[in-house]
Amino acid sequence: MDFNLSTYFNAFDIDKDYELDVSDIDSKLEGVTNLLADNPDSINLNPELFEDLVELVHGFKHLEGNHQKQLAYLLTSSFNSIGHLYSGIIESGDYVDNLEFYKGTLERYGYLVFVLAKHLGKEEFTKSNGKFRNPEMALRWKSNCVQVEDCLTSIVSVLKIDLSKIFITSPERDSFVELFTRPIMNLMESPDRMKVTSIKLLIFKTIAIAVRNHGHATIIQHNIIQCLTYYIHLPIYMAELLHIVATEYDYLLLTEEVLREISQTSFNSNDTNGPKTVSEFLIRLSELSPRLILKQMSYIAQLLDNSNQSLRCSVVETCGNIVVDILKNKADEEIDEHANNGVEGLLDLLQARVLDQNPYVRTKAFQALTKVLALNIRMSARRQKMIAIAVRSLDDRSTLVRRNTIKFMSKLILTHQFTAANGSRLSYSLWKKSLDESEAELLKYLPLSPKKKKRKPILEDGNVDKENVDEGEDEEDDDDVNDYDDVDEEELQAAMEEQEHNLPDTTVLFRAKLKANYFKDAVDFIEAVQIGTQIVSKLLFSKNRNEAIDSMDFLVLADAYGVETSEEGIRRMLHLVWSKGSSDEGKSVPSHLIDCYTNLFLTAPKDISRLEQTIIISKNLIGLTLKASLADLASLEKLLGMMYEQDLINQDVVKVLWQVYNTESLVDESQTKQRLGSIIILGMLAAADHSVALKGLDSLLSIGLGDEGKNDLTLAKYTCIALQRLVPSDQSKSISREDEFHDKLISVLLRYSEVPEWFAVAEQGIAALYQVSSKPETICSELIKEKAIAVFNNSLENENQATSLSQLLFIVGHIAIKTIVHLEKLEGKFKKKKHDAETKKSNSKDDEDNADELEMIGGTSEDDFTDAVSHVKERELLYGEGSLLARFGPLVKEICANNHNYNNSILQRSAVLCMAKFMCVSSVYCEQNLPLLITIMEKSEDPIIRCNCVLALGDMAVCFNNIVDESTDFIYRRLTDESMMVQRTCLMTITFLILAGQVKVKGQLSSMAKCLENPDQGISDMCKLFFAELATKDNAIYNGFIDIFSGLSNDDTLTKDSMKRILKFLLSFIDKEKQQKQLSDKLLVRLTKCQTETQWNDVAFVLSTIPYKNEAITAALDEGFKLVSART
Which of 8, 371, 653, 1109 is 20 to 30 A from 303 (CA-CA)? Predict the structure, then answer.
């Protein structure tokens, strides 16, 4: 039977189960092996031998492992020998007479190897978690890989033959080569097999030879496209294949044709794998052969018009890789003008893509530009465009884009190319000064333009009209462009001669102009960086933790380069100490903040002494307190406490801070601020370790509570704060020199002062008494008595009695609050002591020493003690016959109720504040005076009093919710107060009450929602934060949306545009489809009941904004208001 390759090839089916007689398989294998060993050509001489081999290879899967190895080795070694033999014969030219014989032999071996390769590729090896199920399967895998390598090696040896001399026609040659390329493509379908480097390289070599030597490019091109379309693991390997074909085999046409076909491919909108694999292919190919893609960039750029984002991303990244490759090698080789133009065009394309509609594409554009900047190539003009683009993109809606923009700006700063006498720092003031100087120098060399003589307006009396001189000059400036009639010719001639005499040579003038342009570029760059820094400062509080961390890193970098606007951002960064959560790398935001502040303020040059380092760190810490707000100080205290606990602030720094505080002779105001800053920092550190305050107790008493503290009340205030940290809150109160502490502190509190800071000192001083003193109630009673005697006797004529009474009432009110706090602490200590005693009693019943104590405590239940404390607060403190505070209850009520008689503003503030604090002590007093407090809040003209009333009602809502609950509407009214301060206070109070669950929302959320459109940005941001937190609590926004909508829709003071923005913001929190459906159904019912077109438009807007839609909603909206009009 004659052998026909096409017949055998088309008849073979790898899935067909061919029969094989394995009874005498050993003898059959031995027979064919002996025949082929003697003469590999015998396959073409002995038809029975060929048929036996065909039978064996068809039934390959039925053979045992050792028989498979024997057969595979026999075929591959014989084929390899034939390849080497025929290659030599063809090269020698002695092949014409036996051409048909050689052709038949190759075809027969080719078919056998084709079937063998098909079987080897078909064999399955299952892995679990990257490992084979059993050792036996692992051995089979290794054996299979060896057989595949042998098979590929033999194919390579045959393909090295000049097949065009054996296979005369192209179809014959293509059919023969396809015997190998087709199973090779099947081998590539296995991800595990492609990870074997030796097999992968042999596959690439085989395909490359087939393409270059045997005209197989078209078929391989088609196969590559198929691989990219259907196999997600092959894109990177296809890129490597094309790279090898182009570089090692110098065949570029295949890559060009593949790229051309890809650019013309249209993908189905539902196809996600296709665009993804093509994208991976392009990116990998651009990494391996960027110049190759550059030649076909006109085709690749067409993918930017594709709607699929993955393809556009890949093109952008490809452009970046090409630019990086060209610029990286710019120093090593000469770049022709075409390549330079290509780089400029690609950079333009990348800059244009930062405006792409998809955020991932914009992100890729910034990542590519960042890679370009990392090369530190000079691109002065383009850098100005880049920084402008970056600043604009900091306002991008996508967090991912903003993060990469921040990194891009960081790279711009790191690689900036402006250096001067001050180094590479980007201080605006220094560079602006240099610019002004360079421009002034340049003006010396520029020729003067002829000017008209200035005519001053003359009045009728001959005097100069001075009022109209400027106006006349302005008009003259407008006219002198076209009018030279009045030029002083002599003066002009003299000026021109003088300038010609002083005119420098061309080189000096050219340098002066370059210098001015250089400084102008630097100033423009710094101005853009400053704007960007201000925007980044706002991104510190992004919900995305990674963005916050990236913003922190940028601000630290900007500070290192001297960007002046970074200072405000670094100060705002402090508030991140309260953040929760961590980044993708697992690092928390507070931890990163500690790292940043350590680098900024706790790191000193290493080439100086330890003492100098300590002094620098101490000054840095003190500097943090300058111009700091109360919020800044609270955050700084938290941060320093964390840093102290991590031993980042050592005791040497504490000693230096105490030395600064102890400075006796203060020369100027800066030293006063230094001392104030030192005690602020020491007080913060003492909160983490009370021994810090104990070390300076003498200084605190002699300076802060001495003459210096009396003259500087701010110093006294922070001294009192430090004194509060002398004793930890969880330990018993006992300090040395307690009597001296009492005397000095009372002396400060009793001292008359008209300075407003006195009230802050009194607040902290009383807090220090209750925190440190072992008998605070006794000391405070004496304080009240002495202050009352001084006030009502009016012993000193130079004291204002209203001010003195204000101070007295403030002291009384604050002592009342601190007293109930003290009682609550005593109650907690009692319960803890009782619990410890009971535990101790159960553990050691025979301990006689504690018998009496146990009996005393055990005889009193916790409820009894709680009832006793409650009785003291309700009936004793403000109503007891022997209570000192009870004497002031009627007094403050009288002053508050008769504000016309007692019209001193300070007195009214103190009286209202005192009454509010009394109301937090006793529910009886609260109920009696609540109407008065609400009246004051409603009618007082003093915004501070209104603020205090709002805060007081918030506290009472916590203490006595049942009393204040019916009056919460009065608090909501303050959201529309004429004072922004009152509005802000009210919003903060309501936010706390609602989020803490202290009050129930009863339809007032619409008032809160209106604050989203408040002109004050701080109030608007706070309101957004409130709703963001509210959205996390049991569908609160969904449950209250109808009430909010009704309130906003019926509010005539709110514009429709503002209402729509508010509703759109709130609807963004209703993201569950079920809730959207239910809300839409409710609104659809309301839509059909609208009586006016305005109502209908409002409801229709909400329905159109909600993502959920159905036919009924769509039909109702399409019908419009006419349907309602017809019904009515």
Answer: 371
